[in-house]
Amino acid sequence: MLGEPRDGRIVVVGASLTGLRAAETLRAEGFTGSLTLIGEEEHPPYDRPPLSKQVLLGKVPAVETGLPQRRRLDAHWKLGVRAAGLDPVGKRVLLADGADVPFDRLLIATGTRARPWPNPDEAAMDGVFTLRTREDAAGLAERLDAGPRRVLVVGAGFTGSEIASACRERGLEVTVAERGPAPLVGALGGTLGELAAKLQRAHGVDLRCGVTVTALEGNGRLTGAQFSDGTRIDADIAVIALGAVRNTEWLAESGLAAGPRGVTCDAGCRAFDMYGIVTDDIFAAGDVARFPHPLFEYQLLSLEHWGNAVAQAEVAAHNMVNPGPRRRPHLTVPAFWSSQFGLNIKSVGVPTFSDQVVIAQGSLKDARLVAVYGYRGRVTAAVSVNQARSLEYYQHLIETAAPFPPAPGAADQRETPVPIPSDVPDPKVLSHGPTVALTGHLPDRRLTVVQPAR
Fold it and tell me: What is the predicted pLDDT for the residue at 386?
């Protein structure tokens, strides 16, 4: 690294939300050197959450999802070209077009891509979609406008559930196939998964849990699908919502600790090499990064959240241009939200890092509640359904490692005063990925349920 951290050459690989916010922060922190952003897509950075919501509903055109720049960047943009390799000794990013870009410091923000349907021939049929890019959303919205007879959604995580919700709001017939026991169970556990299942069926979704799609049928154009229980359906469109793949293949020969689970970095976003030694000039942030968090027993977290992408980008950028004593850790409590089937779901903490849950406010029956999660006797997460006003209180409990179950505070009336198992499934039983992955952690569900005082 150069002696003066505010000049030199910084390269950001990944021109999406994380890369843009990092670049803005670099300039705001006084970086005056050369700044280059490399992006595989031809578009300037755009916002992805609207793609499965407003764009699919036809309320916002996909081309109008661009992210605003909060300040002038004075940056070199290399768009429409993929990073193909990294030479950490020569300090060069190798590009797929044969060129290379030299750097003094590097930020890896390559994010994720949609996990494809495993059969390439079936995936190539007309009518089979994934939803990750602006083009994906525009193409799918156009086909939904044409009024298909039935849409098949494979995977009932947040993206799959939001797609199903948009289709039902359009009045389309929808079948959802989920290998796990319920929608959203991989992110929120069994109690809220059961609520999500009832909600989808109440809105007319043909929800099939505990089954997999064994084949997509058609001859160049999708006509239907077969299921593992021996049944089949006719369908014009299939949307594959099987989670995300982290974009790390280009780092295979780099010597970094990078693989299918992401790029491992410390709490200050500095990447580790393959021997576990932290680097000083290579950083990682956003969906592609995995990092330790003290609130969750220093397990390595991988997050696919909008808020984390912004917060981690800002920490990484700050640390790239500040000497060691002035660097800061990325300790933001994870938070995300989803809108589906008339409900607004918001989460703070890591619900999958839990063994028990209590409905601290509201009611499952009314679909208006706050569920609080705990692990080993302390609060680790809270999820609100149409009742977000109290989440700030529970976020404070998470940040202070408050005892679980929580004492009455923001709670108005508890539906279940006794905590019950949170039923966090093993990710291997799901057909979609959780939005939060904790490497090497699976809560011990053999713990006894807390009994009320007698």
Answer: 95
Beta carbons within 8 Å of 135's beta carbon, 6+ residues apart: 62
Instruction: Supply the pTM of this predicted model.
Output: 0.93
Gap between the Cα atoms of 198 and 201, Å rounded:
5
For 230, left (φ over 0), alpha (ψ -120 to 50), or beta? Answer: left
For residue 52, the tally of other CB atoms under 10 A from its CB is 27
What's the Cα-to-Cα distance from 403 to each of 374, 380, 388, 396, 399, rounded to whole Å?
8, 10, 21, 12, 11
Helix (H) or strand (E) holding 397: helix 391-399
Q: Contact at 8 Å (CB) between 153 and 237? A: no
Of the pLDDT bands very low, low, confident and very high (cuts 50, 70, 90), residue 430 is: confident
Whole-number Cα distances in Å, 137 to 63, 108, 174, 348: 10, 25, 17, 28
Residue 231, amino acid: T
**CA atoms of 265 and 256, how far apart (whole Å):** 10
pLDDT in tens, 335-359: 999 999 999 999 999 999 999 999 9
**Contact, 205 vs 172, CB < 8 A?**
no
- Domains of the chain (ranges; CATH) run 9-49+65-113+245-326 (3.50.50.60), 115-243 (3.50.50.60), 335-424 (3.30.390.30)
Q: Give the 3-state DSSP-derived string for 58-127, with helices as H, strands as E and coil as C.
A: CCCCHHHCECCCCCCCCCEEEECCCEEEEECCCCEEEECCCCEEECCEEEECCCEEECCCCCHHHHCCEC
Q: pLDDT tens for residues 264-316? A: 999 999 999 999 999 999 999 999 999 999 999 999 999 999 999 999 999 99
Q: What is the mean pLDDT of residues 176-200?
A: 95
Sorted by sequence, the CB contacts under 8 Å of residue 74 that are 6+ apart come out as 27, 35
Within 8 A by CB and 6+ apart from 434, the residues are 157, 186, 187, 352, 427
Strand partners, 246: 112
Partner residues linked to 41 by β-bridges: none
The set of residues, in sequence order, having a beta carbon less than 8 Å from that of 189 and lying 6+ positions away, is 351, 352, 354, 357, 373, 422, 423, 424, 425
Instruction: Tell me the sheet residues that pair with 368.
Output: 363
Contacts of 79 (CB under 8 A, 6+ apart): 15, 38, 39, 41, 42, 43, 44
Q: How far apart are CA 162 and CA 213, in angstroms?
A: 19
The closest of 215, 196, 216, 217 to 207, measured between CA atoms, is 196
Residue 435 carries which DSSP code?
Answer: S
